[in-house]
Amino acid sequence: MFAGLDPQGTALVLARMQFAFTVSFHFIFPAFSIGLASYLAVLEALWLKTGKALYLDLFRYWLKIFSVAFAMGVVSGLVMSYQFGTNWSVFSEKVGGVIGPLMAYEVLTAFFLEAGFLGVMLFGMNRVGKRLHFAATLMVAVGTFISAFWILSVNSWMQTPTGFEMGPNGEFLPGPSWAAIVFNPSFPYRLVHTVIAAYLTTAFVVGAVGAWHLLRDRANLHARKMFSMAMWMAALVAPVQVLVGDMHGLNTLEHQPAKVMAMEGHYQSHPDGAPLYLFGIPDDAAQKLDYAIAIPKASSLILKHDPNAPLAGLDTIAPDRRPPVWIVFWSFRIMVGLGFLMLGLGLWSLFARFRKRLYDWPMLHRMALLMGPSGFVAVIAGWVTTEVGRQPWTVYGLLTTAESVSPIAAPAVATSLLAFVVVYFAVFGVGTWYLLRLMHEVPHPHEPGPELEERAPIRSAGITPAQQQEGAA
């Protein structure tokens, strides 16, 4: 794998592998918690509006799952910031003036907001008023969105850098307008696309859990309600995601054409209309797509809205500036394929709902159960497409990945990578097992929440354990 690389080149590959590994683990938890926080807000709002205990039961059921997923997301994200100082110190030195404040804003706004209201949301149901508790739930949901806002702004600036000035030592400095940095050309598309992906990820997890319990007990009202809500989300939002993804792709073609060339498998330019390659085996060495299955001129029709429009290929890009096609080509197809499967399941559920068989078709439930992890796989595939397609740049067109890595030794990076692999699989493997165990439990009336029991030794409002014992006596 590392044949032909010098020691610094090996360190670069290992540093990239380490960051890819840690961010992949981290990404799946925020993708779940962003959507789940909003789902919890909807459930509590429905409970307050209708007074139906079923919504409160579902709120408490998913609140326990949210608390574990949120904690795992925070823990998995901590080590990523350290890598900016260890493995990517040159990158941090050069771009810190731009992305440092944006990441600080994420902490000062989103993290503080979530931290301030999370305790009330988790443990305050029986200690504060209903409206105040709902306000806390809303603030946590808003906080997850604000966190996504700032992180995606940072990532989008690296993809489409604007609003900066170059310093005397080659560092990136903020220009006169921070709005140009924050709202860079790809940011609106990436934000909407990613947040919708988070909502769909949550919807398919909720739908899978509902389907699992429907397969065991078709009369379970709690399973029926969560399955119905999830399928509404899939049916209504999946088509929107397809449209948003198309707009995001057109924006990428404008600002990062080499990435789109890799996604489409266009090694060669097509002056009279480019085909849409459905499948094939990319060969970067020979710069061709083997065993290609293509629809003639369909790529030009999608990207240019003209079947005869010319499309440039990677033959117009310098060899050392081309992204690795094999990875981008297949990760993109995994993401798109899963997206259309989500759309198909949503339409199937609409048909079942129209036939009044939504809760009576085991095949639909089995398909929903099978699609439960699809959102996680899709968001990881989308992230791989975005980040690997940006190579060989960290700041697109301006700073290469090789120029960004720290002057570190390969054995040191390999040791830390191995430690991360062992610890992550142990810790987050147990955490994931516990999440699945919680989901395996049947939701039922009078669902207990994560609130402290009355005999808990820690009390708010100044009541001590001794006072509690005296009152009991």
The averaged pLDDT comes out at 86
What structural category do the secondary elements indicate?
A: mainly alpha
Largest sheet: 2 strands, antiparallel
Q: What is the total domain count? A: 2
Query: Poorly predicted ranges (pLDDT <50, ≥5 residues)?
Result: 452-473
The strand order across the widest sheet is 1-2
Q: Work out the number of β strands.
A: 6
Distance between the termini: 71 Å
Task: Work out the radius of gyration.
Answer: 24 Å
SSE succession: HHHHEEHHHHEEHHHHEEHHH
Shape: globular
Report the β-strand fraction as a percent range. Answer: 5-15%
Give the % helix: 55-70%
Oligomer: single chain
Number of helices: 15
Keywords:
single chain; 473 residues; mainly alpha; 2 domains; two-stranded antiparallel sheet; two-stranded antiparallel ribbon; 6 strands; 6% strand; globular; disordered C terminus; electron transfer activity; cell membrane; transport; transmembrane
How would you sum up this structure, described in words?
Keywords: Cell membrane, Electron transport, Heme, Iron, Membrane, Metal-binding, Oxidoreductase, Transmembrane, Transmembrane helix, Transport. Belongs to the cytochrome ubiquinol oxidase subunit 1 family. The chain crosses the membrane at residues 27-49, 61-82, 102-125, 132-152, 191-215, 227-244, 327-351, 363-384, 408-436. The protein has 473 residues and is mainly alpha-helical. The chain folds into 2 domains: 24-184 and 408-444, no CATH class; 228-397, no CATH class. The protein is 69% helix and 6% strand. The chain has 15 helices and 6 strands. The chain has helices at residues 7-50, 53-86, 89-123, 130-159, 178-182, 187-216, 221-255, 257-264, 298-304, 325-354, 362-370, 374-390, 401-404, 410-440, 465-472, and strands spanning 164-166, 172-174, 276-283, 288-295, 393-395, 399-400. It has a two-stranded antiparallel ribbon with strand order 1-2. The protein has a two-stranded antiparallel ribbon with strand order 3-4. Strands 5-6 form a two-stranded antiparallel sheet. Strand 1 (164-166) and strand 2 (172-174) form a beta hairpin. Helix 2 (53-86) runs antiparallel to helix 14 (410-440), helix 6 (187-216) runs antiparallel to helix 12 (374-390) and helix 8 (257-264) crosses helix 12. It is globular. The termini are far apart. 38% of the residues are buried. Residues 452-473 have low confidence and may be disordered.
